[in-house]
Amino acid sequence: MNEFRYQPLYDEWVIIAPNRVRKPVSLPEPPPPPAEISDPFLTGGESKTPPEIYAIRENPTIAASWKTRVFPNKFPLLALETPPVSSMKGVYSSIGGFGAHEMVIDQPKPNKHFCLFSADEFRDLMLTFRDRFCALYQDQRIASVVAFKNQGAKAGNAIRHSHSQIVALPFIAPRLAKQIETSREHYNRAGRCLLCDQIASEENEKLRVLVRNRYFIAFAPFAPRYEFEIWIAPIVHNSAFTLLTKDALSDLGETLEWCAKRLGIAMENPDINLALFTEPPRRNHRKADYFHHIERFFHWHIELAPRSRSSDGFELASGCAINPIAPETYASYLKEIVI
Ligand SMILES: [Zn+2]
Q1: Any idea what the CATH number is for the domain that residue 77 is in?
Q2: How far apart are CA 321 and CA 219, in angstroms?
């Protein structure tokens, strides 16, 4: 039986519709990979990229020993040089394209699929995100930073070499702002963090919990917008990904590996997005009390969203996603996969 489910963190409704038959989406095959020699993101191609901002290296004195590298995107959405000047024209407001757009080459090997990353590779990617978030938060003009990874054409990836991206914005990203708003309302009403309450409910019900270790829990959210969607969050309340410790980084790497490997087997290395949501820097908001108690009510987390299909007109018209697999079904399926 189909069912409407509510996701309080986004104030959104999702339709779980296991009986709905979908036409398979046929997308053209992506073009064949270019010859490796033209891939500037391979080991040894360090001089072919824009100047490096950050790197993790096995040996800091050997340039080619990198595990992750970060540099400005050659085709940025935004640039720090553009002044963040805003203007209003009637009901329309705009801000100059101010911000930062960074490329994170998270893998020296070409075309390594997200689902094949090791725990150490995920740990290094998360360490890179953490350090870049901390650096970008120093810029007083930046209001929020988002980090994500696009794996595959359906997930918006245009470059075949495995990479992630970090974008710093002069306003609070709308999806993050929504989380702040719903979490604040829940805190004001219940006196507790909304995601802590969701995690407690998941641990109590045990229907959708996938895996947990010392620091992290991975679960299928109650109202997932995507087939096989997974959320990963710290078990003990924490608002700031930027404060992640070394021990927690290792556990996060292991949690990501557990999820990615099983998604790879269940969905045959799907196109997938990873998105990270954390507390923005506490400054310059037009509402004076916007950040009041944010460390108590906001809970950072990661979302993994496999992209097995396109959305349709109903989803555009209603704003409700349709998910043909109930999260309880795919959670138990993923847990049965033995690696
Ligand atoms: Zn919490």
Answers
A1: 3.30.428.10
A2: 19
